[in-house]
Structures are given as C-alpha cells and as structure tokens.
C-alpha cells in the first residue's frame, strides 16, 4: 500500500488550516486601533475616575467619602510628571525628597491628631500603561489601547491588593485627597494619590 497520497492529503489539510488561522488573525489584528503615538486618555477624567473608585472602596466599608482637594491634586500631578519625565518610580524623588517635602513646598500643612500622635498625611503611587499590548506589521506599530476605566480599575485594584496602600485608602481620619496622573513618552501612566 502506498502512503504518499494520504501524506499529500494531510499536508494539504494542514496548510489549509494554517492559511485560515493566519487569515483570521490578520483580520483580528486589523480590527485593533492603530496609531504609532498619542492617546485618547483625558488626564482630568482619569483622575476623577480613580477618585470615585477610591470613594466606592471606602463606602463599602462604611467610611466617609474623601473630598477632592486642589492643593493635594497639584502636588500629586506635579510628582507624577516628575516621575514620568525623570523615568523613576519611588516615593522619594532622585534628590531624596518625600511627599512631606512636596506638601511643604506647596504650602500644604497636614496635621491630623490621632490620640497622642500627629499624622502628616500619606501617599500612594502606581504605574500602569496606556496599552495592554502592541505588535508590528509592515513596519507600523499597532496598539491595543487601555480605556480610562481599565486604567483606573487596574490602579485601584492594585492598591487595594497591597497592605500599605489599602491602609492609606481606608484610613478613617483622612478627609481629603488629590489624584495626579502623568503619561511618559513611552506610554507609562504614573499615578500619585496624596491624603490629608
């Protein structure tokens, strides 16, 4: 018995399956938004969405909502811009300054008496991305962009999964916060949350 006709049928079948798979993937990839740079993210909207999600987490636990504070927002946004511009991610900037120094330079005096101690505020930071993936086709870069909702949910979920960040969010004596977002040239989203 000659197996070669069967082998030809198998090879032709495999090639047909590969062609259909590659053709389908190409159509799916063409459906993705394509841009080499830029973003449709509105920074102020994203900051508000994060603020609202933080207050939902507090409400779930019977805590009062945090008000948006312009001074704290200014500190937070400036710091996110510094992290994006200088390409670092830390609570202390490369010059060794902490959120306390940033509060002071903006004229924010946060002193909350808790028993025998005084709390001077707190800070959360996060880093996300404008896109979840990208690929190249014909020399052009294609992105799968994240929405404002996806970025906000990702940031707050990460904070709520971290003991220290969650503790800051759920501190009952904090009454106000500022959220600041900045985006680096390579699509990293830096988020700073300052409390008082």
Structural notes for this entry:
This protein has 196 residues and is an alpha+beta fold. It has six helices and eight strands, in the order H-H-E-H-H-E-E-E-E-E-H-H-E-E. The chain has a four-stranded mixed β-sheet with strand order 1-7-8-4. The model is unreliable at 6-38 (pLDDT under 50).
Radius of gyration: 24 Å
Please tally the β strands and state the result.
8
Strand residue percentage: 15-25%
Overall morphology? globular
Q: Write down the secondary-structure element order.
A: HHEHHEEEEEHHEE
Summarize the SSE layout with pairings.
Blueprint: H1 4-31, H2 43-60, E1 67-68, H3 70-86, H4 99-105, E2 112-114, E3 117-119, E4 122-129, E5 131-137, E6 140-145, H5 148-160, H6 163-169, E7 176-183, E8 188-195
Parallel strand pairs: 1-7
Antiparallel strand pairs: 2-3, 4-8, 5-6, 7-8
Helix pairs in contact: 2-5
List keywords for this structure.
196 residues; alpha+beta
Describe the structure concisely for a colleague.
With 196 residues, the chain is α+β, with helices and mostly antiparallel strands. Helices cover 46% and strands 23% of the residues.
